[in-house]
């Protein structure tokens, strides 16, 4: 490994640990015990926590502790000063502290679950106690470890292939992590997995791994995108034809796709649209009314691709109508206008049942019995086998949505970094000044509405078939708020952010059935807390982070630094052109 | 013609309710320039506060003297919720981009609805509101008009509240402090006015009126539910805009106008697009039209952005 | 201080081309307040016109009327012989660009991106083109980038192109605003207090910059409170007081007009050196925007 601009002189190895200290040995012993415990039985009761009762055959949860232990050992090796160039990048002490805390918390929770559900700690096996002791040793050892100074990751350059390898490894971990998480039927196990995930992510973040990875990711955007797409594409193949998870995954994808469309309006153009679900609804209703359902009242049944276009166009016309007030209204008022439009949509489809206005939508009953899509001879209801892996109905829709999502992501990123995108940023920053500099503010805002609506309409036409039925109560205000929440949670104006946000919002309630009833309560709280503590979202776009922290000079300097660094490198794509 | 007057009366009743809620939007907006989107929920909390007071203290008692205590319960719960909301959620965002308080408001809204739905016993479906002597019961007839007792209570509440409000704003020190803060926050602060306290008072004031509205709504409809704040809040917001947001007496006027328009629309729009299934559509359409074409409202003045 | 320093350093009487801007009878009322009252102004090709007047005289409001930010209550603004619709965008497109008294840059964009926004009205890549990104799109994008960089170099900010606008020092922000306006390919540029908050050295550079802009064949209108600056820069000076034209003429004429002195100081018998000195001192003591006291840009939440 090479470091191009030389980092600060390596005083840290001297400061840190010339010879492994007692603390170091203590932590190592803890980590080894933790790993060892996974190969012992934790509990007599096989029915509990996905079977932790067999010696020398770690169950899923035990594997998690193996992972924690191994990561801890990795950081310990770093700390011994054996890989100096890596060592300067990562803060092993902070990472170890977080890892120890995770291990300890996890073990205690497992012990608690066993005590409550086995029931009684009498059912615990020695392995559990070995693990607890290991975790405790780790905590004791790492607690007083001295943090070491970090080198700014942007000044370190590894060979390209190493960086790309890191991305690939990361993507693989994401793929199998997602498959594992979805595979957990048991809510308790899933929760424990979340504890593990949260802990490890925190540890790696505190260790400085993510700031390093984000620099790498910024350098290799294309690779990252392709990687993510590949992971998404491969996901159904890890499911062995099980429809349960694919149904959730498809739901998540539809939700994410719609949220991405909304992110054009909210994240890029900076307009708050609280009626966005109506566009999805418009697409879905068009698709339903033109389908072969017995309750569809439009006689014309064109091929699906035509339906998609019509749905998208109808939806974007609605978008134009909803967007037209932006000529005169902005800010909060605009948000309320869009909300009112959304409600009008819902009430209208709820009313058009023949008694109140023309018979189009069947009123509150909606349009049930929408048949599966059939494109050419490919029926989306059938199970197809590829490479020996059966792919069921939901997997089919999943792939279709993936194409739509990829399309929307492309539209999103390309618009963002174009003349139009600059216009949007200018409008967000200072609309009057933008207008005075010749930016067509009204046109751009209108386009954001219409474009976002177009994409949502597209998604809606597919959703109707996937859902089998279309009813007004799928398109209530709360759904719009949910979409908005995905964006707020993930990060305005950022694709990765929205994907994360949408996944969290859709996946967690599906998996955590026992919180299902508290879903909305938590969701409301989440919006408030996010706005208070991290308004730019979990994975923000840099510009949005700046906008939400107008007074934070350090952040501005820092982002500028990264920006300068990346701008200084010749972009391979541009170099070719 | 009788029908017209009957609808006028119904409209005024409805409008009084809107007006009581609308004041909350307008007072808060006048002072901190945010739309407290969760205000509809404050109204809902008021209704549940009244009901809780009755259930806990006077279960089964229908005498009139209970009513003032229910109102106190309603107002107290609304005010507490509104002030807490200001303190915890809005105050830290005072210098954030405008998107932030709006999203926070949506969050609070959903949170409060759900909190009631989950934790108020039996609130997963609509709950019957207590019946109180004199203000509920058989309707009175006044010539050709049918006057519901609760309507008299609602309109009466508005009159009393509007008078008290006028007195508060124009005749008390705190009220004049509010006027000062709404003119210019920074100068007001320099003049020794405690701006934070004034803002809290504004939230509390709006909430108090919303609490009263909650009781009125309960008496009118005979039942209340956790979702009642959503629609009522939106309509009241329309009323506030109609009257010119920031203008307190405008909100009262706007509420009455909106109520009457809605009542008339239900009665007099002919064909399949008339009648009650479409009434909310027309209300929302009116909201849009007002926001787009007369955002300064009937009484407000348009603010020009200076270059 | 001698009268010597007040002599214009601009080249001796120059001849100017055809009128670029002809504003006649412009009136702007806000309710009862008449901010601009019956102002006539003609600016010719290659001319630098100064617009002076005490605080609140209506200078900025007059700019807003010219650039379509406000629709004048009465009067007509002709640009290159045609009456412009009161829409900022059409005005820019027609070739009139401006800067703002209180800097209104896009703080979270880089300097280069700011200037590229100025190119917006001269490019036309629409949605589909931007998504498909054919050769034509890429050519246009590269072209705007190049032109934007050229303007940055022109105002002397070439090295800051990748810096965030909000991180730039105050003087650079003013120059960046000028570059952004220039990027719209204007025939006439309106500068609202371009040297407010600058130190003498920066002011000198700004003067040089304005001369270079003029030498590119643009007409310039400058609002300034710094009399020394105005009189040494402009070919003609127009003085507004309480919304009305007091006098328009060569710097010498305006400078020696006692009504101008009165308007600024309100004491007719003070002699003129003192008036200019005082006006200048006042200006430096109290920069006209709050932002000037702080090198960074503050968002105005007006
Ligand atoms: N949008 C507006 N609404 C009401 N009054 C306004 C508006 N814009 C400007 N004014 C008023 O018009 C008058 C002229 O203001 P203007 O900003 O044009 O002065 P100015 O000559 O640019 O002063 P300065 O030298 O301080 O910049 C002032 O009294 C101001 O208060
Ligand atoms: Mg001015």
Short description:
The complex is a heterotrimer of chains A (577), B (307) and C (302). By secondary structure, chain B is mainly alpha-helical.
Please explain how this structure is put together.
The complex is a heterotrimer of chains A (577), B (307) and C (302). Chain A is mostly helical and 577 residues long. Chain A is built from 24 helices and four strands. Chain A folds into three domains: 12-234, no CATH class; 244-477, no CATH class; 541-577, no CATH class. Chain A has helices at 11-15, 22-38, 60-79, 84-89, 92-117, 126-143, 160-183, 187-206, 209-219, 221-234, 243-268, 277-289, 304-323, 331-351, 393-416, 419-429, 431-436, 441-467, 477-490, 495-511, 519-533, 542-548, 553-568, 572-576; strands spanning 374-375, 378-379, 384-386, 389-391. In chain A, β3 and β4 form a beta hairpin. Chain A starts with 10 loop residues before the first helix and ends with a helix. The relative contact order of chain A is 0.09. Chain B has a single domain (2-293), classed as Orthogonal Bundle (ABC transporter involved in vitamin B12 uptake, BtuC). Chain B contains eleven helices and four strands. In chain B, strands 1-4 form a two-stranded antiparallel sheet. Chain B has a two-stranded antiparallel sheet with strand order 2-3. In chain B, α3 (66-90) packs across α8 (195-221). Helices cover 37% and strands 21% of the residues of chain C. In chain C, the strands form two sheets. Chain C has a six-stranded mixed sheet, sandwiched between helices. In chain C, strands 2-1-4-5 form a four-stranded antiparallel sheet, covered by helices on one side. The longest helix of chain C has 20 residues, at 135-154. Chain C is globular. Chains A and B meet through α14, α19 and α21 of A and α4, α9 and α11 of B. The complex binds adenosine-5'-triphosphate and magnesium ion. Residues 59-60, 101 of chain C line the site of magnesium ion.
């Amino acid at each position: 490994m090479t470091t191009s601009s030389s980092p600060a002189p390596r005083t840290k190895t001297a400061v840190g640990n010339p010879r492994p200290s007692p603390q170091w040995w203590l932590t190592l012993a803890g980590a080894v015990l933790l790993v060892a415990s996974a190969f012992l039985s934790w509990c007599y009761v096989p029915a509990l926590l996905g079977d932790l009762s067999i010696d020398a055959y770690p169950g899923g949860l035990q594997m998690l502790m193996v992972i924690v232990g191994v990561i801890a050992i990795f950081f310990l090796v770093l700390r011994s000063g054996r890989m100096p160039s890596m060592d300067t990048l990562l803060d092993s002490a902070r990472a170890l502290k977080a890892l120890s805390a995770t291990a300890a918390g996890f073990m205690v929770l497992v012990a608690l679950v066993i005590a409550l559900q086995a029931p009684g700690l009498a059912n615990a096996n020695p392995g559990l106690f070995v693990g607890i002791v290991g975790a405790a040793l780790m905590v004791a050892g790492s607690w007083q470890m001295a943090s070491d100074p970090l080198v700014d990751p942007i000044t370190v350059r590894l060979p390209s292939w190493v960086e790309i390898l890191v991305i690939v490894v990361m993507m693989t971990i994401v793929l199998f992590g997602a498959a594992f998480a979805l595979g957990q039927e048991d809510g308790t196990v899933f929760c424990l997995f979340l504890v593990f995930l949260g802990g490890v992510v925190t540890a790696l973040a505190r260790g400085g791994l993510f700031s390093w990875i984000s620099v790498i990711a910024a350098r290799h955007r294309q690779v990252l995108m392709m990687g993510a797409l590949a992971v998404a594409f491969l996901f159904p193949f890890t499911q062995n034809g099980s429809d349960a998870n694919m149904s959730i995954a498809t739901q998540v994808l539809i939700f994410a796709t719609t949220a991405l469309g909304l992110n054009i309006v909210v994240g890029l153009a900076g307009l708050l649209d609280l009626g966005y679900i109506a566009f999805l609804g418009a697409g879905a209703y068009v698709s339903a009314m033109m389908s072969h359902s017995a309750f569809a009242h439009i006689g014309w049944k064109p091929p699906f691709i035509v339906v998609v276009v019509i749905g998208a166009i109808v939806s974007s016309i609605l978008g134009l109508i909803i967007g037209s007030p932006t000529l005169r209204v902005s800010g909060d008022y605009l948000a309320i206008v869009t909300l009112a439009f959304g409600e009008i949509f819902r009430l209208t489809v709820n009313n058009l049942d023949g008694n109140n206005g023309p018979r189009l939508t069947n009123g509150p009953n909606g349009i049930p019995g929408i048949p599966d899509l059939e494109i050419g001879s490919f029926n989306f209801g059938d199970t197809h086998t590829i490479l020996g892996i059966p792919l069921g109905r939901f997997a089919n829709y999943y792939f279709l949505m993936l194409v739509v999502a990829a399309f929307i992501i492309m539209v999103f990123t390309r618009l963002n970094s174009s003349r139009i995108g600059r216009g949007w940023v200018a409008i967000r920053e200072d609309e009057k000044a933008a207008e005075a500099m010749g930016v067509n503010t009204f046109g751009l805002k209108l386009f954001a509405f219409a474009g976002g609506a177009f994409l949502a309409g597209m998604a809606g036409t597919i959703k109707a078939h996937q859902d089998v039925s279309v009813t007004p109560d799928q398109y209530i205000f709360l759904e719009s708020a949910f979409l908005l929440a995905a964006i707020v949670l993930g990060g305005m104006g950022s694709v990765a952010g929205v994907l994360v946000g949408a996944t969290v919002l859709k996946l967690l309630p599906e998996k955590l059935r026992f919180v299902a009833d508290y879903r909305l309560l938590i969701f409301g709280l989440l919006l408030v807390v996010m706005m208070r503590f991290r308004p730019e979202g979990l994975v923000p776009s840099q510009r949005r982070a700046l906008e939400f922290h107008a007074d934070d000079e350090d952040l501005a300097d820092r982002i500028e630094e990264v920006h300068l660094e990346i701008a200084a490198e010749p972009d391979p794509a541009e170099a070719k052109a | 013609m009788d029908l017209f007057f009957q609808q006028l009366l119904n409209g005024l009743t409805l409008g009084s309710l809107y007006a009581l809620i609308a004041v909350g939007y307008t007072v808060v907006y006048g002072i901190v320039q945010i739309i407290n989107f969760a205000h509809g929920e404050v109204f809902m909390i008021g209704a549940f506060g009244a009901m809780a007071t009755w259930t806990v203290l006077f279960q089964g008692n229908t005498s009139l003297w209970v009513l003032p205590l229910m109102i106190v319960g309603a107002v107290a719960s609304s005010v507490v919720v509104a002030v807490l909301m200001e303190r915890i959620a809005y105050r830290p965002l005072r210098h954030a981009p405008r998107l932030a308080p709006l999203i926070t408001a949506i969050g609070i809204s959903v949170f409060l609805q759900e909190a009631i739905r989950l934790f108020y016993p039996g609130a997963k479906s609509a709950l019957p509101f207590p019946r109180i002597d004199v203000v509920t019961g058989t309707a009175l007839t006044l010539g050709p008009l049918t006057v519901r007792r609760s309507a008299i209570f609602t309109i009466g509440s508005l009159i009393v509240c509007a008078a008290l409000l006028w007195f508060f704003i124009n005749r008390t020190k705190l009220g004049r402090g509010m006027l000062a803060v709404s003119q210019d926050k920074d100068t007001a602060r320099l003049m020794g006015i405690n701006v934070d306290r004034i803002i809290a008072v504004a939230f509390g004031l709006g909430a108090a009126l919303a609490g009263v509205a909650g009781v009125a709504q309960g008496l009118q409809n005979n039942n209340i539910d956790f979702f009642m704040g959503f629609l009522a809040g939106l309509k009241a917001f329309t009323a506030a805009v109609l009257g010119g947001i920031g203008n307190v007496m405008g909100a009262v006027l706007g509420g009455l106008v909106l109520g009457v328009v809605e009542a008339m629309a239900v009665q007099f729009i002919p064909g399949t697009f008339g009648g009650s299934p479409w009434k909310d559509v027309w209300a929302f359409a009116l909201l849009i039209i007002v926001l787009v074409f007369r955002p300064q409202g009937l009484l407000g003045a348009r603010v020009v952005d200076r270059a | 201080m001698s009268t010597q320093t007040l002599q214009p350093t601009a080249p001796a009487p120059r001849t100017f081309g055809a009128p670029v801007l002809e504003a006649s009878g412009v009136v702007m009322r806000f309710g009862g307040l008449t901010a601009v009252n019956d102002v006539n102004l003609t600016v010719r090709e290659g001319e630098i016109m100064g617009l002076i007047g005490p605080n609140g005289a209506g200078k900025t409001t007059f700019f807003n009327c010219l650039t379509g930010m406000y629709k004048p209550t009465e009067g007509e603004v002709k640009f290159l012989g045609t009456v412009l619709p009161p829409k900022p965008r059409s005005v820019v497109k027609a070739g009139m660009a401006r800067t703002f008294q209180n800097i209104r840059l896009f703080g979270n964009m880089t300097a280069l991106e700011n200037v590229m926004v100025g190119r917006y009205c001269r490019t036309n890549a629409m949605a589909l083109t931007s998504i498909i990104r054919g050769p034509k799109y890429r050519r246009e994008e590269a072209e705007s980038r190049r032109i934007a960089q050229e303007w940055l170099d022109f105002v002397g900010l070439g090295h800051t192109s990748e810096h965030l606008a909000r991180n730039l020092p105050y003087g650079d922000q003013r120059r960046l605003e000028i570059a952004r306006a220039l990027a719209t390919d204007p025939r006439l540029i309106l500068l609202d207090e371009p040297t407010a908050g600058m130190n003498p050295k920066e002011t000198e550079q700004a003067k040089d910059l304005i001369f270079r802009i003029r030498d590119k064949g643009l007409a310039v209108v400058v609002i300034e409170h710094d009399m020394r600056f105005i009189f040494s820069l402009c070919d003609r000076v127009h003085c507004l007081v309480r919304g009305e034209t007091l006098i328009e003429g060569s710097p010498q004429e305006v400078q020696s007009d006692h009504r101008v002195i009165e308007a600024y100081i309100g004491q007719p018998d003070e002699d003129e050196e003192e008036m200019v000195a005082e006006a200048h001192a006042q200006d430096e003591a109290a920069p006209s925007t709050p932002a000037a006291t702080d090198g960074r840009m503050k968002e105005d939440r007006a």
